[in-house]
Design goal:
With about 425 residues, the protein is mainly beta. It contains two helices and 30 strands. Helices cover about 5% and strands about 45% of the residues. A four-stranded antiparallel beta sheet has the order 1-28-27-26, with no helix packed on it. A hairpin with a 6-residue loop joins strand 7 and strand 8.
Amino acid sequence: MFRIMGVVVVFLLCCLPGLSQAQTTYTLVPLEGQPFAIDPLGQRAAGTSLTLPEAMILTEAGPVTLGTLPGGKQARGQGICGPYVTGDSGVGASGATHAFLWTEGTGFVDLGTATGNPNDLSVGWDVNCGGTVVGTGDFEGWLVPLVWDENGVHILETFEPGGIAFANALTEAKDIVGDAPVGGNTHCVFWEAPDWTIHDCHADPAGEGLSFGFDINASRHIVLTAFLPSLRGSRAFLRKPSGVIRVLEPLAGLTQSIVLGINNSGLAVGASFSDGQSAADPGVSQATLWQDAPEDLLPQPVALASLVTNGAGWELRRALDASEAGVILGTGTLNGVPTAFFAIPMRMVAQPPPVEEPPVADARAPRHHRLAQHRDLDLHAWLARCQQHREVCLSKQARWDERVAEWKARYGEQ
């Protein structure tokens, strides 16, 4: 769910030489609640309450409680864009959860299921600013990728019948990315608009291992995380519109990476961690950024913590998403307490008014002007949209760890 940025900004970001990711600095703002995805248009996030089982919008000023579908006992906000929020909510005594679309001024709409059976499962993962929702749901004993739009619910094509498949994210043009079974493994899948033509976006040309497509931007850059035998662990990858795939290496001293989102400026966000550790473990991972680079270069990892101006007491564990203005949504700890945050580019932080210079006594003397303070161009102007497996809501990192464990159980450590 990403916007097409202005021509001038795109030109500056893409064409001016010598600009680096480290030129942007951030200030941290703590959030109340469990976040899942950031609104590409502003400083709001979809999420859920830490104390109440209700969907919420998280803001700097505090959370806004949305509630649940009628009769539901719990709900989670998992995608947001403009006036829309999507996620899943319980729908009554059956215990099933249904995807919902919440609209500002209107409230909740139950999107139903692919089968029409109210006892079946559906989940909304992402929504664009046109109100189109992508997700997953029950169908003939399997989980299938779904789209809800003005024409109803649609089941996306997969390479093989059956299995478990997810539609995880979409753009304003309705390009969709997710994952589906291929040859006994799970591969990143791209459904190209307008007809949702299916493409395999797996990181390994031989088709080995697992990969999950977590996000896509307006220019069809796809971020995916893969577990490949040749790499002995998880790696983040960036797939360019040309089909070129670049690895997103972890921070120095760490051995594994996971990528969770990307915005239209090519800022990819995620985490780095080490062998034997889990990306879902809040005590070990480090929030990591990668800025898209020319095709002959590898995007370099940067620790988000190295760019913040007010990091005292903070441990930044995961960067989940980035808005089009470059605001990063993440999770970590503040003075040892698990806390979500916005990392806001300093150029967006209100500055105190300049102090006026005293008048010059000699009118013939040249006036003294303050030099305008240079503000860094923001190169990061894409959550971890969080996933759910059946009734259990898992973060994308936890879902990733679950599938890797399945792969190791099948094939061994290798």
